[in-house]
Amino acid sequence: MDVDALMLARIQFGFTISFHIIFPAITIGLASYLVVLEACWLKTRDAQYRDLYHFWSRIFSVNFAMGVVSGLVMAYQFGTNWSYFSDFAGGVTGPLLTYEVLTAFFLEAGFLGVMLFGWNRVGPGLHFFATIMVALGTLLSATWILASNSWMQTPAGYEIINGRVVPTDWLAVIFNPSFPYRLAHMGIAAFLATALIVGASAAWHLLRGDRSAPIRKMFQMAMWMLLVVAPLQAVVGDFHGLNTLKHQPAKLAAMEGHWENTPGEGLPLILFGWPDMQAETTRYALEVPRLGSLILTHSWDGQIAGLKEFARADRPNSTVVFWTFRLMVGLGLLMIALAVWAVWAQWRGKLYDHRPLLRFALYMGPSGLVAMLAGWMTTEIGRQPWVVYNIMRTADAVTPHETFEVGLTLALFVIIYFIVFGAGTVYILRLIRKGPEAPDTHTPQEGGPGEPRTPSRPFSAGAETDELAHSPGA
Amino acid sequence: MGIDLALIWAIIILFGILMYVVMDGFDLGIGILYPFFPAKEDRDVMMNTVAPVWDGNETWLVLGGAGLLAAFPLAYSVILHAFTLPLIFMLLGLIFRGVAFEFRYKARDASRHWWDKAFIMGSITATFFQGMTLGAYIDGLRVVNRSYAGGTLDWIAPFSIFTGLGLLVAYGLLGCTWLIFKTEGDLQRRMLGLARPLTLALLGVIVIISIWTPIAHGEIAARWFSFPNLLWFSPVPVLVLVTTWYLLHSLNRDAHAGPFLLTLCLVFLGYSGLGISVWPNIIPPDISIWDASGPAQSQGFTLVGALLIIPLILMYTAWSYYVFRGKVKTGDGYH
């Protein structure tokens, strides 16, 4: 095993997980949104909710398929590329992953068919139940996998016997110190990212002059959601940061580009700068005096450990996490700004007409996903050089493959992911562009194959037509 | 502790893999049969018979992997290390196959054929490399000091290539008889025509593997042909012949679910035969399920969930199949 193969293995994992996480994040947000839409439809029988449900469930199905296939890769990559980690820590991560499969993956997959294709095959109550089960599955899935990830960040409830991790207290394993914060932070991130996508989709239609009821409804729903979750995320993120300070001080020092303390002096907050790992300093630092102490220790002259207090071999790459962290926070602040702006426009009664706001909402569409990826890079690269914090180094976890083997598979993943998920993204954008449709404008569904836009494709939930004419209440 | 956790977990994982083989087997089989049915209408119907259930079927594969990691981390790490390349090729195949279910219907007419090809190539690739992995697994892995010590390409051998091709036949037959069950009219008639040669081919595959493995592996020969094992295991080949005969016979009459159920029996028998050859090793040729066992705390904790939840999973999965019961027709779907 040489350094190149280790680096390639890390790149491969980072690449495949970064692609993967986008899909479940959207799945989590959209599934809950679909529950809300279907509940509104069943309660009010207002057709716009039903139209929005079908519109977003088509996008959901495309997104879900990509999540399934990219997730399957993850379940096997722990073994193919990180076999020593699996042998060492499988006693903890294996059961958590198995519980995720049992309680979440099967629940999602088992009810997905009915949710996507069963609108006319089961009663409205049962269909609603299926939607709820799918949404519940997405949330359970996040819970288990974040328990596993958090355990790798802040391990607890275990002993090491004969060189292997043996769980001694499962409650302590699952509810390890960083788990509640990470779960809240990631859960909110999924809702936030989805709200921004929904909002941007609506804004695009509004900018093009489509002011139909479903479009306005979804813009309004997205902006209200944003107003609730964007500021909440800032608060939760702050708690998460303090938790990191307590349990992973080297990571926090790297995020802040903080090298050493001046005795008796409060900590500045470095807004921008270039942490230099070789020179052990942050170059070109633009600082606000004492703000660091205020944020991190909630006092005027509190101090935190600097990177120099950790051995060189134990320091995460500050140059990277300093910037990924700032990217995440910066986007978060823009999200709050968007929410506030939208409230102002709503109050002035021009939520749907204020073009600069609509354009801003459109551009912010992908920002939730970008911020989420930046946040994950911060926490994962910030955990280095450990795979299980303070217990196992990443370099000791990797499968001793030859460079060519990891290089070949990495090249295949890169090429295939860009083709496949690129195509999927195009199809999702096409569905968004098409927008929600009222069922009455459809061509009759009995047209049969060969007729344009008829259900020669009844089982693709993303099909451009669907069977709304038969829906309850239609 | 009187409970043999390793034994129970081996049974659960074997059950999970069996579920995967039969359920994703017929999904993948549909992709394998696609080249024989170029008409768009036929392909729509074929795909629609599994569209609502395919990803539940694939989830059993994740359960197999996760369960192995939870209960036998050593086996997970050694086997996945040894078979990194074929497993990644399989996963890449499953990616193309999986997204084709959705993308095929999103694509415009001019580009749909690409996703048909993705569906075909994905299904064939996934199946072939699964079969190769199986063959290489039976051939055994060299392990030194808890780590795979063989070469990167050791999984390529005549036997593993044969099992790769054999699995294509097995999944092809599963897909074919599933479609006999779920379609009607002309499409069903053509499936009935394909089922006969596929059944005979699968019988041939089973016979050849049954001869090949004991010749190549002394311990497998000893397992089967020593006394009294011979008496206990002799029903397996007999039942294979009986099932094949019934299966061929069932194709003559007004076929519905019969051929599919008999194919399931046949696959189950073949699977049992391989299980008998390998048992109780989890890393052939000589690391047993007890040697590779993870911590009892991990196996016990996960077992509680597995025993409570798997029955529930089977119930709602059955319900989903029930909701989408009946024949799938051209154009109209399930209305």
Mean pLDDT level of chain B: 91
Helix content of chain B: over 70%
Instruction: Give the beta-strand count of chain A.
Output: 6
Strand content of chain A: 5-15%
- Large-scale geometry of chain A: globular
**Sheet with the most strands: spatial strand order of chain B:** 1-2
Given the structure, what is the number of helices of chain A? 14
The low-confidence runs of chain A, each spanning 5 or more residues with pLDDT under 50, are 440-459, 463-474
What is the share of helical residues of chain A? 55-70%
Explained architecture:
The complex is a heterodimer of chains A (474) and B (335). In chain A, a hairpin with a 4-residue loop joins strand 3 and strand 4 (281-288). Chain A has a two-stranded antiparallel ribbon. In chain A, strands 3-4 form a two-stranded antiparallel sheet. Chain A is built from 14 helices and 6 strands. The longest helix of chain A has 42 residues, at 3-44. Chain A is globular, with a radius of gyration of 24 Å. Chain A is mainly alpha-helical and 474 residues long. Helices cover 67% and strands 6% of the residues of chain A. In chain A, helix 2 runs parallel beside helix 7 (213-247), helix 7 packs antiparallel against helix 10 (318-347) and helix 8 crosses helix 10. Residues 440-459 and 463-474 of chain A have low confidence and may be disordered. Chain A has a domain at 227-401. Chain A has helices at 3-44, 47-81, 83-117, 124-153, 170-174, 179-207, 213-247, 249-256, 291-297, 318-347, 355-363, 367-381, 394-397, 403-434; strands at 158-161, 164-167, 269-276, 281-288, 386-388, 392-393. With 335 residues, chain B is an all-alpha fold. Chain B has one domain (5-323). Helix content of chain B is 75%, strand content 3%. Chain B is built from 13 helices and 4 strands. In chain B, helix 1 runs antiparallel to helix 3 and helix 1 runs antiparallel to helix 6 (112-139). The model of chain B has no long low-confidence stretch (mean pLDDT 91). The chains are: A mainly alpha (474), B mainly alpha (335). The interface between A and B is large, with 90 and 75 residues.
